[in-house]
Design goal:
- Belongs to the acyl-ACP thioesterase family.
- It is found in: Plastid, Chloroplast.
- 21% of the residues lie in helices and 34% in strands.
- It is of the alpha+beta class and 241 residues long.
- The protein folds into 2 domains: 88 residues, Hotdog Thioesterase (Thiol Ester Dehydrase, Chain A, Roll), CATH 3.10.129; 109 residues, Thiol Ester Dehydrase, Chain A (Roll).
- A hairpin with a 5-residue loop joins strand 3 and strand 4.
- It is globular.
């Protein structure tokens, strides 16, 4: 599982700092967290966390962490979290989708040292299914990935994407206070501008569910489930002086 929250966009030429650390996640897992902030002001632009488990290289199945391994690395654990450890909302499986890219093939440059497709390529495949009008009018504010299986150079991949019908209005309440504040400014400016409540609805975040699956017989196999949230680009300040 890997949630990423992009809270603000840095200015062009701004110098950034990236903090990262590891911590425990249950008995057999570990987590790695990240904070991206302005070097000058300390303002946080993005937060991310990920959960990792051990896998047996021979059986390709999850494995219990040996006690000697945990004893060796546990002194380096830092018990703080970049993103609050709420129970994550389950990402539903897509059986059908409005947007679909098929016959996607990994290139050698997409593979990591284990000959697996890397995370950046997963994101690119997912984002390429987002409608052009959304990419032009919105910016990505949150990503969650849920890994199901490995993807290698021989896999033929299909990328599915569907807009969440119930996520359109719910996001304004469920998301962090920072994102909610921006939505509140947008909502207020729309109402003051004369568009009223209905005119402000297009300012609410849009959420999409994604699925990358490998073509197979007798059925396709899930590689990654994903969820992306998009907020309206703010072309001007919400209030004018």
């Amino acid at each position: 599982m890997m949630p990423i929250k992009n809270m603000y966009t840095p200015c062009r030429g701004e110098v950034l700092e990236i903090d990262t650390w590891v911590g425990a996640s249950g008995k057999n897992g570990m987590r790695r967290d990240w904070l991206i902030r302005s070097q000058a002001t300390g303002h946080i632009f993005a937060r991310a966390t990920s959960t990792w488990v051990m896998m047996n290289q021979h059986t390709r199945r999850l494995s219990k962490m040996p006690e000697e391994v945990r004893a060796e690395i546990s002194p380096w654990f830092i018990e703080k979290q970049a993103i609050r450890d709420d129970i994550p909302e389950k990402i539903r499986k897509l059986d059908e989708a409005t947007y679909c890219n098929s016959d996607l093939k990994p290139k050698r440059s997409d593979l990591d040292m284990n000959n697996h497709v890397n995370n950046v390529k997963y994101l690119k495949w997912m984002l390429e299914t987002i409608p052009d009008q959304v990419l032009e009018s919105h910016q990505l504010s949150e990503i969650t990935l849920e890994y199901r299986r490995e993807c290698g150079s021989s896999d033929i991949v299909q990328s599915l994407c569907e807009q969440d019908k119930d996520g359109f209005l719910g996001d304004g309440v469920k998301h962090s206070g920072d994102i909610g504040l921006l939505n509140g400014f947008s909502l207020a400016s729309e109402i003051i501008g004369g568009n009223g409540i209905l005119g402000s609805l297009d300012k609410m975040p849009i959420r999409y569910t994604h699925l990358l699956q490998a073509k197979g017989e007798p059925k396709n196999e899930e590689i990654v489930r994903g969820r992306t949230t998009w907020k309206r680009k703010l072309s001007t300040l919400p209030f004018t002086s």
